[in-house]
Amino acid sequence: MKTFTELDPILHSQLRLAIMSLLVGVKEAEFKYIQEATQSTNGNLSVQISKLKEAEYIEVKKAFENNYPKTTCKITKKGTKAFEQYVKDIQKYLNK
Amino acid sequence: MEEKIITEQESLTIIQNMMNKTKEQLFDNSTLFLLWGFAAFICTVTQYILLKTNVQDSEAVWIAMPIIAVIHIYIVVKKKKEIKVQTYNGNAISALWTAIGFAFVCIVFFGSQKINILPMIILLYAIGTFVSGKIIDFKPLIIGGSICFLLSIAIAFIKDENQLLIMAAAILISYIIPGFLLKKEFKNQQA
């Protein structure tokens, strides 16, 4: 039986989980869209996106559009698998 | 949203809330449906009137279509800059209509070989609207597409310029009416 501490620590965080839940349903999303949807601050979101990127759960593309920086995030296969496993673990925990 | 320790129940709530947000992303494709719908409808009715009044080269009205294609590209490029999220549904619909657009261009060449292209055009309307309706789960498009399948059969039993009336009905049912309803639905969602 999984315990609370055995849940993926990268995903078991309010904002990182929200980012992953959002990205799992779309092809890719812009930083601004994620920020609006999660109602997070610029700095906090940047930090959590970096952590997800380090874990290779998401890909981050940086580009310029009309002289403004544009950051786009996309979930990776590793990220999708980790998310699915996380949901299974949560369900197991709640069903026990 | 701040960083804090969450319970399993809270985790599920976050997942549900976020997934619902992406589900709510209904694309406002109504502008393109209405643009093509009105352009094709006006051309069809004009050609019908010209044929009835014995004007020669009535098919020249369709020269307007490449102009509409340019307006379409302008709208899509402008919208692309505004779109902050790309959904799988949006991509599927875009790929479907790109393929149908290519098919329309191919069909124009069949027309030059004196083949009746109207049933083929109505079939493409049927496929495009029916599949789009299924992807975004929007009944007016599904119904419009289904009726167009029947109209593509009906047109085979109708002669001469009266085929254009069936064509106009197909455009009204598959583009214009669902286009207005889609716009209304999108506005309600944004409210």
Give a written overview of the molecule:
The complex is a heterodimer of chains A (96) and B (191). With 96 residues, chain A is an alpha+beta fold. Chain A has four helices and three strands, in the order αβααββα. Chain A has helices at residues 14-23, 31-38, 42-54, 77-95; strands at residues 28-30, 58-65, 68-75. A three-stranded antiparallel β-sheet of chain A has the order 1-3-2. The longest helix of chain A is centred in the last third of the chain and has 19 residues, at 77-95. Chain A is elongated. The model of chain A has no long low-confidence stretch (mean pLDDT 90). At the A-B interface, helix 1, strand 1, helix 2 and helix 4 of A face helix 1, strand 1 and helix 4 of B. Strand 1 of chain A pairs antiparallel with strand 1 (85-86) of chain B.
Give a short account of the largest sheet of chain A: 3 strands, antiparallel
Class per helix and strand makeup of chain A: alpha+beta
* Backbone structural class of chain B: mainly alpha
The radius of gyration over CA of chain B amounts to: 20 Å
Which range does the strand content of chain A fall in?
Answer: 15-25%
User: What is the succession of H and E elements of chain A?
Assistant: HEHHEEH
Strand content of chain B: under 5%
How many E-type strands of chain B?
1
Order of helices and strands of chain B: HHHEHHHH
What is the oligomer described by this structure?
heterodimer
Most extensive chain interface and residues per partner: A-B, 33 and 27 residues
Total E-strand runs of chain A: 3
Helix content of chain B: over 70%
- Let me know the largest β-sheet of chain B: none
- The stretches of 5 or more residues of chain B where confidence is low (pLDDT under 50) are none
